[in-house]
Write a structure and sequence with these properties.
Distance between the termini: 26 Å
Order of helices and strands: EHEHEHEHHHHEH
Strand content: 5-15%
Shape: globular
Helix content: 25-40%
Number of strands: 5
Largest sheet: 5 strands, mixed
Structural class: alpha/beta
C-alpha cells in the first residue's frame, strides 16, 4: 500500500524535489500487476494498486481511485499521474461513459481493454480486428497459436512479449483509430476488440528515459 499522504506546501522552498510517481489503479492482482511492475526503474516510479473485487465496475474503480488519493503521496503539481486500468467485463455503456467522464474531470488516464487485458498481449503477435467473445477466447488464441502456450492469469509473460511491444503499440493505435471512426467513443461495449493500454505503455516508456 502507498505511504500516507503528507501535506503539500508549495511555499516551502526547502521541500526536497522528488521524481513523479505514476499510480496505476487496476482490477487484477495478477495479470496487470505482473505486467506493469516491469516499467519500474530509477527514473520511473510506478505504484500499482489492485483494488478489491467490490470495486471492479469501471465507474466504481475510477471513483475509488479518487478516494485513495487521501492516503497517498499524490502531488500532481510535481508531475504525479493516476491511470485507471479496466476491462469491458459486465459494464454497460452508461457505466463506461460515467467512468470516462469522471476520469476526465479529475485528469486521470484510462487504459481500457475490450474484451480483456489479454487482447493487449495478443496484438503483440498479430493484427486481430474480429469480434472476441471474452477472456477465454483470447487466451485460447494465445495458447492454440503457440504465442503463449502455457499462459495463465498469474503468469509473468513480459519477457516473452517485450520484443514485439513496438508492433503492439502500432496495431493498438490503428485499431483504436478505426473504432473511434465507427463509434462515438472507443470506451464502449461495441468497440470489441480494442485496447488503449498502448497509451499507458507509451507514457511509461517516456518516463523511463
Amino acid at each position: 500500500m502507498a505511504k500516507l499522504r503528507r501535506e503539500y506546501n508549495p511555499d516551502k522552498a526547502a521541500r526536497r524535489k522528488r521524481r513523479p510517481i505514476i499510480y496505476i489503479i487496476c482490477e487484477g492482482k495478477e495479470t496487470e500487476t505482473s505486467y506493469f511492475k516491469h516499467f519500474r526503474s530509477r527514473n520511473c516510479l510506478v505504484d500499482i494498486i489492485p483494488i478489491s473485487s467490490k470495486h471492479k465496475a469501471a465507474e466504481h474503480l475510477v471513483k475509488h481511485a479518487n478516494s485513495l488519493i487521501s492516503q497517498m503521496d499524490y502531488f500532481p503539481e510535481d508531475g504525479d499521474r493516476i491511470w485507471c486500468v479496466f476491462d469491458r467485463d459486465d459494464n454497460k455503456d452508461n457505466e463506461l461513459r460515467a467512468a470516462t467522464d469522471y476520469a476526465q474531470r479529475h485528469n486521470y488516464g484510462i487504459a481500457y481493454s475490450n474484451p480483456c487485458f489479454e487482447y493487449w498481449y495478443l496484438i503483440h503477435f498479430e493484427k486481430r480486428n474480429g469480434y472476441l467473445k471474452d477472456a477465454d477466447a483470447v487466451i485460447g488464441i494465445l495458447k492454440n497459436k503457440g504465442y503463449l502456450v502455457d499462459y495463465e492469469k498469474s503468469a509473468d509473460v513480459f519477457g516473452q512479449i517485450e520484443p514485439y511491444q513496438a508492433d503492439a503499440i502500432k496495431r493498438a493505435k490503428v485499431r483504436a483509430e478505426e473504432a473511434g471512426a465507427d463509434f462515438a467513443t472507443v470506451i464502449c461495449r461495441d468497440s470489441n476488440p480494442v485496447t488503449t493500454v498502448y497509451e499507458l505503455v507509451d507514457y511509461l516508456n517516456s518516463q523511463r528515459i
